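tokens incoming
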């Protein structure tokens, strides 16, 4: 039953076929999404990566042998169709294909692991993730990841137009970037190693190496047993670093411009996907609001939202602050500046006049932190003291600390959650919807 593709080559995708192609011969390939009709008339809904097209088979138009083959088809069979384009106002899109030849390239079991037709009730998320290949055949799910592709394309276009170069750094590291907590330990021959939490030290090394502006889009790993809609243990991070900055505001301004570019790029280039998802996105206006953490605490206090003075915001605090920002500034984005030193890594620059606060920030989008950034401490003696304040022995980070003895420029940067950008842009409600194959405490496959 299964046939060779032979010399056939696809000439068009479903989306390429138009009424102007009436009577043209084409070769299409894809999946049998649905079959309707009786003995003398069959309608096949052929699905490919761009959409659907109707294959119409009438006994008067095709050979008995071809109709017999069509009767053998089942849902999700992979087929090739050579046929003639026909204008038909009653057909979806005003066109149909009358088949001349059909090749069965592969078969499918009759009982599908989940439903793939858009109008039918979707499976629960765990079932969808367990059979992700089938889930991704649904156009509305595929659309999310096509938009995600636009997001990463926009990131690269923007940063490269601002003189950043892309780098690739190790994901197996000897030291944890932060305190050493929440890291995955792995055996590296006869040593203990870790999965990288961040490319932080390597980005800064590139500043010491005079590269001025670098970025990386790569996976990072956090061994945190969160079971929330906002967390996964492996996520995609955009990290960038830039030299010769005046202050953390230079970094924030770069991020602000980047966000506007991403939103505009997606709005312009992903119209079909956004339509399929019934989403309309608004390009944010600049400047984004900026409030200090002290001001954020005050806003939460006035709204009777629980928070801890001098601490980071919890999930509810971020969500409620996002609501307050929308009410006060009519804006989806906000920079939270001047984070407490107590909750920032040792390499963060302190404020000169208020050392209990830092030249660092988070950026929220609709009540979710999607960016962390700021200015780094580039002066060796101060950096050593700050490491010691955080109970870190500088000698354990000698490869990193030593370079600051040899002329590192003022610099700063950020880590940006790509998954969270997609989640918030499309209002997905769960970060797993924005990740192809999410990793969480209870999920290591597929």
């Amino acid at each position: 039953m299964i046939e060779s593709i032979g010399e056939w080559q696809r000439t068009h995708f479903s989306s390429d076929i138009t009424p102007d192609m009436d009577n043209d011969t084409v070769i299409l390939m894809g999946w049998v999404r649905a079959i309707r009709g009786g003995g003398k008339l069959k309608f096949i809904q052929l699905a490919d990566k761009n959409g659907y097209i109707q294959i119409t088979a009438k006994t008067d138009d095709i050979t008995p042998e071809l109709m017999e083959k069509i009767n053998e088809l089942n849902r999700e069979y992979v087929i090739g169709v050579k046929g003639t384009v026909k204008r038909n106002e009653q057909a979806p899109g005003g066109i149909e294909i009358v088949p001349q030849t059909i090749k069965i390239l592969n078969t499918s079991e009759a009982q599908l692991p989940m439903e793939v037709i858009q109008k039918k009730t979707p499976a629960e998320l765990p079932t969808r993730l367990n059979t992700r290949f089938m889930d991704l055949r649904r156009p509305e799910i595929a659309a999310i990841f096509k938009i995600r592709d636009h997001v990463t394309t926009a990131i690269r276009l923007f940063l490269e137009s601002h003189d950043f170069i892309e780098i690739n750094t190790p994901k197996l590291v000897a030291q944890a970037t932060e305190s050493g907590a929440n890291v995955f330990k792995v055996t590296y021959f006869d040593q203990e190693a870790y999965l990288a939490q961040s490319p932080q030290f390597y980005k800064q090394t590139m500043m010491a190496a005079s590269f001025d502006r670098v970025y990386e889009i790569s996976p990072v790993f956090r061994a945190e047993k969160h079971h929330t809609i906002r967390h996964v243990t492996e996520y995609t991070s955009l990290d960038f670093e830039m030299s010769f900055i005046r202050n953390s505001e230079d970094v924030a301004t770069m991020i602000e411009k980047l966000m506007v570019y991403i939103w505009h790029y997606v709005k312009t280039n992903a119209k079909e996907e956004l339509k399929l998802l019934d989403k309309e996105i608004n390009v944010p206006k600049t400047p984004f609001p900026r409030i200090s953490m002290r001001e954020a605490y005050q806003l939460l206090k006035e709204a009777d939202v629980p928070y801890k003075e001098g601490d980071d915001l919890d999930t509810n605090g971020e969500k409620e602050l996002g609501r307050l920002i929308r009410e006060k500034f009519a804006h989806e984005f906000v920079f939270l500046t001047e984070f407490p030193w107590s909750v920032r890594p040792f390499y963060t620059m302190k404020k000169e006049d208020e050392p209990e606060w830092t030249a660092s920030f988070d950026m929220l989008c609709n009540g979710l932190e999607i960016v962390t950034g700021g200015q780094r401490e580039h002066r060796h003696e101060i950096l050593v003291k700050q490491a010691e304040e955080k109970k870190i022995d500088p000698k354990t980070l000698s490869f990193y600390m030593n370079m600051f003895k040899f002329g590192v420029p003022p610099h700063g940067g950020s880590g940006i959650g790509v998954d969270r950008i997609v989640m918030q842009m499309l209002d997905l409600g769960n970060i797993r919807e924005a990740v192809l194959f999410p990793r969480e405490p209870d999920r290591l496959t597929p």
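note: The mean pLDDT is 96.
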